[in-house]
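User: I'm writing a tutorial on reading structure tokens. Could you give me a worked example: one chain, its sequence, then its tokens, then a sentence or two explaining what the tokens reveal?
Assistant: Sure. Here is the example chain.
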Amino acid sequence: MRSRAGVLRLVAVSMLVALGCKEREIRAYAAPKDATPSRLAMPPTAPSAPETVSWSLPSGWSELPGEGLRFATLVLEPGANDGSRPALEMRITPLGLAAGDPLANVNRWRQQIGLGPLDAKQLPDVARSVAVDGRQAHLVNMTGAPGEHEAPHQILAAIVPGEQRVWFFMILDHSDRVAKHEQAFEEFVRSVQVQAAQSVDVAQLPEGHPPVRPSSPGADGGATADASGLRWTTPDGWHAHPGNSAFRVVSFHVGDEPADAEVTITRFAGGAGALLPNINRWRGQIGLAPIAALSDQPLDTVQVGGLEGQLLDIVDARADDPRRQRMLVVLLRRDDTTWFVKMTGPYDVLETESPTFVEFARGLRFVTEES
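And here are its predicted structure tokens:
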């Protein structure tokens, strides 16, 4: 079993826009290697970190970074190397306390698998009350109607209330894949622990502790401190947002419209799994079919912080589709950590912003104590 606990922050949003300036303004953000008060330019006790969760990971399962609202993704079964079968995943998502009504959630999920709604008296038939970290949680198990040529869809889910958030743990796939994980899923859910929001004494953190990020922007517009020592520069017109999980270091909204692109920097310990399944996962995110071999996806070499990375340009070939998407991904290995720098958005936006993205990725630096 392997445990994971993080001190996370979801509070401050730093707007990094330079108005009235014709030239691109670059602002530097340093992420010191050693998370000490002097290097972080913050008082010995940091402001409260938000509520988070930890768990014991069953043997054979692995973790992937969260994206968007998703706190983390757990992989129960890897996808096929030829891309013909996607990975079996659990998504972990925190929402506000108002989202915690078990009956409302169950009926919403039932609709997704072709089932009708239940009333409150029927809820215990599919949602068992279980104790999780001293809290009353609900364990949900529902199977939809069988398809003509395939197994029905099955949902395994848990609703775990915290003090500030409600935590959702959900698997949705065909029942021939999901059912065999029912016991492991329940054991996993019962291992979940909710860490309440708390003040963090930075001076007392042990060496190598996960990052502690200040909950309000600094005088320079908002610096992100990260134990890896990552440094980046933010191009004009990119709006920075602090990372919202143990894996996401930072994200950027590119442009002024909601439909414009997003850039994320994520990391996690060890390898990121085989490259082909990752590529097919990314292709699926922009509506593309999986590929059978790496030779079907061009890979370029890019230098990042003195290290050699790989650059992927994943393009929706449907030129006549107004919803056409594109994705640029830089993959980098440093020591025992894998980094993904990813830009996703409409094809036309990325066509304009891709040179800036590549320049941004090349400008990433890993600073050490000596530097």
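What the tokens reveal: The CA atoms of residues 4 and 54 lie 5 Å apart. The chain has two domains: 2-47+203-366, 52-195.
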